[in-house]
C-alpha cells in the first residue's frame, strides 16, 4: 500500500478492503455547516447550506437508492471550518470507515467534505480509493463507483482549488477587517474581559462591570501588599468570591469554553488578571493569532507587534499601579507551597560581588540573608554576604528616610528657584558633552567619507573597506542616539523643574515613615546590594530623574545640592 499522508484524521492500515464488486453500501451522510454559513442563515441571505437543507437532500438520496444502500448514518459538524479535518464528527466518520462500519460517503457538495485543496484531494484520490470507499458528491455529480472517471474529471480538482481559494480570500478579508478595528481601538473579542461588559449599543466598546471591577482591584491590592498569586486565589475562594467563569454564569453573561468551568480561583487566573493591560483603559489586542487559514493553531505574537490604542475605555487600575505590579512580577518572589505571604525583601536583594540573589534563611529564632551562589552552588564561587533581617530592615528604612528628607529639601529649593526673578537654563556640563559628541560625530563622518577613495587608491582592501564602513556606521548610529538624548535633557532642563515632579512626589508622600512595608519597597526601591562586610547600598527608582533635579538646583542655587 502506498504511503498516505496524515492530514489531521486518524490513520492506520486497514485489515479489510471492501471488494470492488460490492453492491450494498453502508452510507455515511456527512454534513458540515461553517460559521460563515451560519451568519448568512441568520441574516436570511442564503439557507442552501443549512443543516436542515443538507439533511433533507442526503436523506432523499438515501430513500431513492435504498435498493443499493443497506444503512444510513449521519455525521454533523455544526459551525466548523472546512480548512482542516480536526472536526469531531468528521473524525468519528473516519473511525467508522476504518472499522468497516461505513463504506460509502455522500455529501451535498465537495466543499462540505473539505475546503482545503490538499486534504480534499488526499481523501478522494487516495485514501477512499485504497479503502474501497465509494464517494458521492451530489452537486458535482461525482460517483466514484458508478462513474470512476468522474473523480478524475478536471472539475473536481478545479472545484477543490476554488473552494480552497475562497477560504483564503475570506480569511484575508476577515483579517483586514479585524486589523482595522483593532487599530481604531474597537474591541473584537467574543467575550468581554472579567471586570467589563460589552456596551449593549456598541459591541466593540467596553463598559465597567462595577461588581467584577471591585474584585479586580482587590486582586491588585492583595498582590501589592505581599500576597503571592496562590495566596490571592486562596483568599478569594475562602471568602466565596466566584471565579470569572462562575461570575458570568451567575450574572447570565455568555461564557467562553476556553476559560473552563472551574468555579474556583487559581494562581493562573490571578496571573491573567495581573498581566492584562486592558485594565489600564488602553486597548491591547493582537497578542495571539491563528498560524494560517489552513493551520488553525494559535501562536503567541511578539509584544512589539501588539496593537495598542490608549484611553479607549474607563480604567479599573491606574497605570502607575499596573506598572508597579509588572515590575514586581519580574522579581523572584516564589513562596513555598504552604506559603501565602511574599517575604518583605523577596526579589529585591542582590549579592554585591556575584550579582545573584541574596535569599532568606531561618535558623532557630533568627532570620538572615545570604548569597544564593554561596548557599546553593559553590562556596568557592562567592562568599556568604550574610546579614540579619533586623539589621537589614533598619538599614533600608534609614536609607529611605534619608532619601525622603532629601526629596523634601529638593522640593523646597525648587520652589524658591522657580519664584526667583531670574533663572538659569544652561548647563555647562551638558553643553560641553554635546559639543564633544558633535566633534566626535563629525570626525567619524569625515573618516567614513574618505574610505571609498582609500579603497580606490589601493590603500585598503575591499574587505577592509566594507568592515571599516560598517564600523563607522555603527558609531554614527550610537553617537546620533547619544546626542539626541543629551539635547532632550538640555531642553528639559531649560523648561525647569517644579515641586510636583513625579520623582519628588513619590518620596514626599512618605515623610512620616517609621515602618518598612513591601508597598514602600515596590514603589521606591529598584534593588538592594548586600556586601560581604554586612553593609548595604540601596538603588532607588527615579535615580536619573533625581540626578537631573540636583543639576537644576546646582545650576540655579549657590548652595550645592546634597546627593545620596
Would you tell me the overall average pLDDT?
A: 81
Let me know the largest β-sheet.
5 strands, mixed
Distance between termini? 81 Å
Radius of gyration over all CA atoms, rounded: 35 Å
Description:
The chain is of the alpha/beta class. The protein folds into four domains: 25-168, Resolvase, N-terminal catalytic domain (Rossmann fold, 3-Layer(aba) Sandwich), CATH 3.40.50; 196-329, Hect, E3 ligase catalytic domain fold; 349-386, no CATH class; 397-556, no CATH class. 47% of the residues lie in helices and 14% in strands. The strands form six sheets. Strands 2-1-3-4-5 form a five-stranded mixed sheet, with helices on both faces. A three-stranded mixed sheet has the order 12-16-17. The longest helix is centred in the last third of the chain and has 34 residues, at 462-495.
Question: Characteristics of this structure?
Answer:
4 domains, 17 strands, Hect, E3 ligase catalytic domain fold, disordered N terminus, single chain, five-stranded mixed sheet, 19 helices, Rossmann fold, about 575 residues, elongated, alpha/beta, three-stranded mixed sheet
